[in-house]
Design brief:
Elements: H1 2-6, H2 9-14, E1 18-22, H3 28-35, E2 40-45, H4 54-67, E3 79-83, H5 89-104, E4 116-120, H6 131-141, E5 149-153
Helix pairs in contact: 5-6
């Protein structure tokens, strides 16, 4: 029930925020945040690295936005899908800024970075991304303010994630 959750701690975190979901996949986490009252939302994934399925993934994200638009009233037209490869932090930063500007059109002035960056299940071994690359991308895309937050959800799988802990020394 979206209205009852809006008054919770999660609702307070996203209410009026400019949000990016990195590694969005289907966009579930970002769309849920938008339904809780986000002002702007950018769903991003490495569309060009999607093993020849970039068009399918982009279409899925766009379709999921349209299917849930009735729940995303606080975002109105401030929704965007972006190709953001966090294995390449400078690319990710540039794409995130462009997507933020696109999402801001018609929604007031854009802010310099995101209030909240969401990452859900993007740290597993086998996708070819180092944790340090993801951390740098988060750092570069977050707004420069003490209230900016990153919410990173990680599932520990049977096989230990090689490099997850040891890869953060230079971040």
């Amino acid at each position: 029930n979206v209205p009852s959750v809006r008054s919770s701690a999660a609702g307070a975190l996203v209410q009026g925020a400019c949000i990016a979901e990195l590694g969005a996949g289907t966009g579930l986490a970002g769309l849920h945040a938008a339904a809780l009252g986000a002002r702007q939302l950018v769903l991003s994934d490495a569309l060009t690295r999607s093993h020849g399925k970039a068009g399918e993934l982009e279409a899925l994200l766009s379709s999921n936005i349209e299917r849930n638009r009735h729940l995303l009233t606080s975002c109105a037209g401030a929704l965007a899908v972006a190709d953001c490869d966090f294995a390449n932090p400078p690319h990710a930063e540039a794409v995130a800024r462009l997507a933020l500007r696109r999402a801001s059109e018609g929604a007031g002035p854009s802010v310099d970075g995101f209030d909240l960056v969401i990452v859900s299940d993007c740290t597993y071994e086998g996708i070819g991304v180092k944790f340090s690359e993801l951390a740098r991308t988060i750092q570069r895309t977050l707004r420069r303010h003490s209230s900016a937050r990153a919410l990173v959800c990680h599932e520990v799988r049977l096989k230990p994630d090689a490099g997850l802990a040891s890869d953060t020394d230079d971040v």
